[in-house]
From TrEMBL:
SUPFAM superfamilies: C-type lectin-like
Gene3D superfamilies for the chain: paralog of FGE (formylglycine-generating enzyme) (3.90.1580.10)
Protein name from the UniProt record: Formylglycine-generating enzyme
Molecular function in Gene Ontology: formylglycine-generating oxidase activity
Highest taxon listed in the record's lineage: Bacteria
Alphabetical list of Pfam families matching this protein: FGE-sulfatase
Record organism: Flexilinea flocculi
Domain Sulfatase-modifying factor enzyme-like: 137-334
Alphabetized InterPro entries for the sequence: CTDL_fold, Sulfatase_Mod_Factor_Kinase, SUMF_dom, SUMF_sf
Length: 337
């Protein structure tokens, strides 16, 4: 009986050891198979520090197809510049991108240039309509192959003549009423009385004396044509009787012999132009010239609409006092520059 009492504690301890071994074995197997093991504590612990398994990156996210906008912009700009240079060199209007990048706002250089040119010429046309005399900076070849351009304050068309080692310019047409009125409106020229039919301001100005003609040419930045310049411009060096050649004057070449009984707009007889392309060197209105002797009387050249055909010719001239004027006497200017 006493021995049994002694064995009871040992038996209890042995049972506890067996249970402990079973427990430990179960825990090991659970850990090996990835299963959790639930502990239910008898009290709630308040940890002083907690750990989380959530990783939050800062700004190091790197997408697979990241687009570098700055590099894209630079590449597009370089592509456009490169192709524009190639376009200029090849004298074409085609833009051929060398990059596989296709920007949304592709620049069409051909369309851009076309729009710019269209706007420019549209503005030029509006300017030409608004201004009576439009400056032409570059020279062009006229019907006879001589250079002409607009010159002076009146922007008249002048023809360049190079003869005997001298270069000078002569007005292609006689000075008109409209051109003369510009000088009058500027307060530089005297107002002159025109004939009653002078409603058309494009007719040659008449009733101007020599002094008034010279004043106008000075205002225009030119000089009254000299007698020598007039003869050269009319074609005296070509050894012909008339500016157009040796054929007799008729109503297709010159306004004379009372065909129309009045003056007409300059340039109505292109078949009668001089070898340099000057118009109405004979007929229409007489033209004042300046002589080197500067006498009180000065020569007039070319005849007018009232001159008989049999008197017309390059050598035809008359004389008038500087203070005199007539309904069939006008003028044109010249320039040495």
């Amino acid at each position: 009986m006493d021995k049994r009492k002694q064995l009871l504690p040992l038996t209890g301890i042995l049972i506890l050891l067996i249970l402990l071994i079973i427990l430990i074995t179960g825990m090991v197997q659970a850990i090996k198979h990835g299963n959790g093991f639930l502990f239910i504590p008898s009290f709630t612990a308040s940890p002083t520090a907690s750990f989380t398994h959530t990783i939050t990156p800062t700004t190091t996210l790197t997408p697979i197809n990241t687009i570098d906008l700055m590099r894209l912009h630079t590449s597009i700009a370089q592509t456009i510049d490169s192709n524009h240079s190639k376009t200029e060199a090849a004298k074409t209007k085609t833009l051929t991108p060398t990059s596989t990048l296709t920007p949304v706002n592709t620049v069409d250089m051909s369309m851009m240039e076309t729009k710019i040119l269209f706007a420019f010429f549209e503005a030029q046309t509006e300017t030409a309509e608004a201004i009576v005399y439009t400056a032409t900076p570059s020279m062009i070849l006229n019907e006879k192959g001589y250079f002409e351009k607009r010159k002076g304050n009146d922007q008249s068309i002048m023809v360049r003549i190079q003869e005997a080692g001298k270069t000078f310019w002569i007005d292609k047409y006689e000075v008109t009423c409209q051109q003369y009125s510009l000088c009058v409106n500027m307060g530089k020229c005297d107002r002159v009385t025109q004939a009653s039919e002078d409603d058309d301001q494009n007719l040659p100005v008449v009733n101007v004396n020599w002094n008034q003609a010279a004043t106008y040419c000075l205002w225009a930045g030119k000089h009254l044509i000299t007698d020598s310049e007039w003869l050269t411009g009319a074609g005296i060096l070509f050894n012909t009787e008339y500016p157009w050649g040796n054929d007799s004057p008729d109503q297709n070449r010159v306004n004379a012999n009372l065909f129309l009984e009045k003056r007409v707009k300059p340039g109505q007889y292109p078949s009668g132009m001089s070898p340099y392309g000057l118009m109405d060197m004979l007929g229409n209105v007489w033209e004042w010239t300046e002589s080197s002797d500067n006498l009180e009387e000065q020569k007039i050249r070319g005849g007018s609409w009232r001159t008989p055909n049999n008197l017309l010719g390059l050598e035809l001239s008359g004389k008038m006092k500087k203070t005199e004027s007539s309904i069939d006497v006008g003028f044109r200017c010249a320039s040495s520059q």
